[in-house]
Design a protein that fits this description.
Protein name: 2-keto-3-deoxy-phosphogalactonate aldolase
Pathway: Carbohydrate acid metabolism
Helix content: 40-55%
Strand order of the largest sheet: 5-4-3-2-1-9-8-7-6
Number of domains: 1
CATH topology: TIM Barrel
Strand content: 15-25%
Organism: Roseibium denhamense
Distance between the termini: 15 Å
Keywords: Carbohydrate metabolism, Lyase
Largest sheet: 9 strands, parallel
Structural class: alpha/beta
Order of helices and strands: EHEHEHEHEEHEHEHEH
Shape: globular
Subunit structure: Homotrimer.
């Protein structure tokens, strides 16, 4: 089963990259990003992409500049996630045949992202807009627009976000914090996936 969850591994050390990635994939999460403000992120991305590219989409988060897109591409990454909506970053990402998930909050940012080719909208921080805010914006977005709630969304409220129209989630500290062991992450990932699957089934 493919799940619309992006694992956010902020602070990941390259020495931890492979075992952490392996347990996340085994739990059923197959989109993983390493924010570029992590220690030596391109080294982690390269190792993860080399080992797991056939099993998961590996890429970078906190991507703010065009040059960073090229760097992630060179490291083998296939997705670009940003906290903001930068048309130049989006267009460059698509020109490199990578997936683009820019950060948005307002209708203006949403439509700017979509017009420039974004594959999905990252509502960040989701805690500020809330499910009610997302529901209001969904009324004007093109039907079928992929929307991801990031920052304030987790197993405790997946159902609320789904009901509002979210199609997926980005999960950070609820899944991984620097220093966490692979066993820790495996346990958390299993709980997140179970809550996600339960919410999906409840909504059918």
């Amino acid at each position: 089963m493919s799940r619309n969850i992006i694992a956010i591994l902020r602070g990941l050390d390259p020495r931890e990259a492979l075992p952490i990635t392996e347990v996340i994939i085994n739990a059923g999460i197959t989109r993983i990003e390493v924010p570029l403000n992590s220690p030596n992120p391109l080294k982690s991305i390269e190792a993860m992409a080399t080992t797991f590219s056939s099993q998961a989409e590996i890429g970078a988060g906190t991507v703010l500049e065009i040059e960073q897109v090229h760097q992630v591409k060179s490291a083998g990454g296939t997705l670009i996630v940003s906290p903001d909506c930068n048309p130049d970053v989006i267009r460059t990402t698509k020109a490199e045949n990578m997936k683009s998930f820019p950060g948005v909050m307002t209708p203006t940012e949403c439509f700017t992202a979509l017009r420039n080719g974004a594959d999905g909208l990252k509502f960040f921080p989701a805690s500020l807009i809330g499910p009610d805010g997302l529901k209001a914006i969904m009324a004007v977005l093109p039907k079928g627009t992929p929307t991801y709630a990031v920052g304030g969304a987790g197993p405790h409220n997946f159902a609320n976000w789904f009901e509002a129209g979210a199609t997926g989630f980005g999960i950070g500290t609820a899944l991984y914090k620097p220093g966490a062991t692979a066993a820790d992450v495996s346990e958390k990932a299993a709980r997140i996936v179970a809550a996600y699957d339960q919410s999906v089934m409840a909504g059918k």
